[in-house]
Amino acid sequence: MSKIKNIPTWVSIPEQSDFSVQNLPFGIFSVGKSSPRVGIAIGNQIIDLAAVAAYGLFVNLNFNVAVFEKSTLNDFIATGKTNWSSLRNRIQELLNEDNYELKSIAKEVLVPMEKATMHLPVSIGDYTDFYSSREHATNVGKLFRDPENALMPNWEHMPVAYHGRSSSIVVSGTDIRRPSGQTKTSAATAPSFGPTTSLDFELEMAFIIGKSTNLGDQVSTDQAEDHIFGMVLFNDWSARDIQKWEYVPLGPFLGKSFASSMSPWIVTLEALQPFKTDAVKKDTEILPYLKCVQDFNIDINLEAYIQPKNGEEELISTTNYKYLYWNYCQQLAHHTINGCNVNIGDLLASGTISGPDENSFGSLLEITAGGKKSLSLNNNVERKFLEDGDSITLCGFAQKDNVRVGFGEVTAKILPQ
Amino acid sequence: MSKIKNIPTWVSIPEQSDFSVQNLPFGIFSVGKSSPRVGIAIGNQIIDLAAVAAYGLFVNLNFNVAVFEKSTLNDFIATGKTNWSSLRNRIQELLNEDNYELKSIAKEVLVPMEKATMHLPVSIGDYTDFYSSREHATNVGKLFRDPENALMPNWEHMPVAYHGRSSSIVVSGTDIRRPSGQTKTSAATAPSFGPTTSLDFELEMAFIIGKSTNLGDQVSTDQAEDHIFGMVLFNDWSARDIQKWEYVPLGPFLGKSFASSMSPWIVTLEALQPFKTDAVKKDTEILPYLKCVQDFNIDINLEAYIQPKNGEEELISTTNYKYLYWNYCQQLAHHTINGCNVNIGDLLASGTISGPDENSFGSLLEITAGGKKSLSLNNNVERKFLEDGDSITLCGFAQKDNVRVGFGEVTAKILPQ
Description:
Two copies of one chain form a homodimer.
Chain A: E1 26-31, E2 37-42, E3 45-48, H1 49-54, H2 74-77, H3 81-95, H4 106-109, E4 110-112, E5 116-119, E6 127-130, H5 134-144, E7 161-164, E8 169-171, E9 176-177, E10 180-183, E11 192-195, E12 199-200, E13 203-209, E14 228-235, E15 238-239, H6 240-246, E16 260-262, E17 267-268, H7 269-272, E18 276-277, E19 297-298, E20 301-307, E21 314-320, H8 328-336, E22 347-349, H9 364-367, E23 375-376, E24 382-383, E25 391-400, E26 403-415
Parallel strand pairs in A: 6-22, 8-16, 9-26
Antiparallel strand pairs in A: 1-2, 1-5, 2-3, 3-4, 6-7, 10-11, 12-15, 13-14, 13-22, 14-16, 14-17, 18-19, 20-21, 20-25, 23-24, 25-26
């Protein structure tokens, strides 16, 4: 693969910033009481696209720049892949160290991130959660079901998934209230009711649909990338005790639907292209509709941090998106093979991403073996599951040839019931 | 209970019409190339509410009548329960035989149903499918799992449910294409791919959320009716072979997400109040949050008809909404007990409604015992599952004191893959 092009810029970008000139992720921001609108992250600042457009710097773009004044990205996404790319090229041109068009009005159109409030970037019609990490599915199967037959027979043949709840997806920074529900220990004869005692995070990534389909259409693995706008970090909060009692036979419901958190910046698929890497080797023959002409994955470093109540933030997991057994092309091809339609803004999450060793587990369920052992933190703090006041932060970034394309973070604190 | 009031009207309403003066269901219709807008069904006609408003007959209503020009009911629903009721009272007044306000302009504001096209009545954010018929859950448990332990231990303690796919919900009359997918017989060592060979219908009803909640809010069984706008007939098409191979452990996915059909007219909860009846007796003690001050169900007669390709329509099931073990208040209380928010337009379906005997089964899976025996139809036609060209029609109506409040129908034909 060729080296990633270095793009010298006049904007000050801190070393190790996730938001390089090669990234340019999209989000929805507001300042004070202004209306939420479309922005692009660069270093520690946000490019106010509607403001830039008002200066006439987007006159050569082939779409109505009024989409930058909307409170979700859906209308901008609907302008299509060619326009996403034209805008990206134009922004890179404007940021180039030799260009003065934007530089001369920088104070008017660049907003410091610390002054901005970030909002949910897209209106999400449907949310699907896959289960595509073999390591995670195996770990959970051992704990919830049969240690000898942890992986279900269908798992190596299809990207298993379920429909999630889209209404309760919130943007990073939104506090999460501990949910109540029914739980039942195996010793009890009847269920009892109360706040969950096994609240967990799930380290995931998700992709956002960029091109809708009609009911009956199928998206092949080859076509899949044309239907994806970009990716985010995703934390699929889980109440393990509620989940365990409710999930047979129809799958997870209230154990998940109380909240999921997503990062505010959507990193485009175009920005992620240079970080493609080899796919996980599959020993089982898969059906033709799931094969990729060139199988691949993406090398994205992922980290989970816990900040216990009144404590200090600590790294508790280091994993990678590339560990997924099924890539996003296979996920989308599977999702639409029955003719199910997808819409712009739909969110398709990966499922918890665990790696091969204990330091790479993407949930407390796996880290503490279902609460059988404790996670030891600094200052003699121990955790089996999350306690009120704890915060979880997920980070992710791709890096190559000194170019970093990162996702920022998705963070949230647990409030008491 | 008091008798239902008779309301003499100047409108011609055919005997046994579902759409009586006591009903007044809401839908979205268009005529020719006109924009879809809000209508109320009366007899064989549709009241064009925007047209009535233009004549000034709604000047005493306390909301902006521009909501009648929208292509979904969501904005009208958002005006609130008091306004739904005021409009209902005003329409009943206008239809009264002594009233000439509407009668004098009837030709301008009443549209014959045969001239109208019906559309999906609401924009549906999230769709949830319950599993609240004990008979259905038992029948399916016997076929899919263990005949000795058909009902899961959680079933009598909670209204079990899963998230469905909202994008593929279509209005009655939309053809359904036979989906393809992975299936595996128990004898095979690997799955194979192709069109489903066990396409089925599911006779369901669904309710539509009428008042949104915030994340973290719980809706008690007592408050539930304030959050529900009305009900529809619902057919949750199912590919049994795809479902069987994919559904463990995360529940149904592609076996359902190719399509669900709903009836175009939403019957309001207010119109259904007179048909409340006793709840199913529960032998198992349930948790307090699922108890109703006065437990009830609704007496709605339900029927399923099949019209085999080139054949004649035949009744294949007669059941009743009142057979549901969990009523809609319990379903909504359970759904929100973890703080999950609901939005106006969300659709919550009952799950297949089967009754106690063989004539009351709400799916072919149950009627043919999973394809083990044939359903015998006229002219020596037999069916185990649906064939291309077959149509399924579901009907439903409540009736008491010579007053009928019906749902019309939800019908669809199967197209080949």
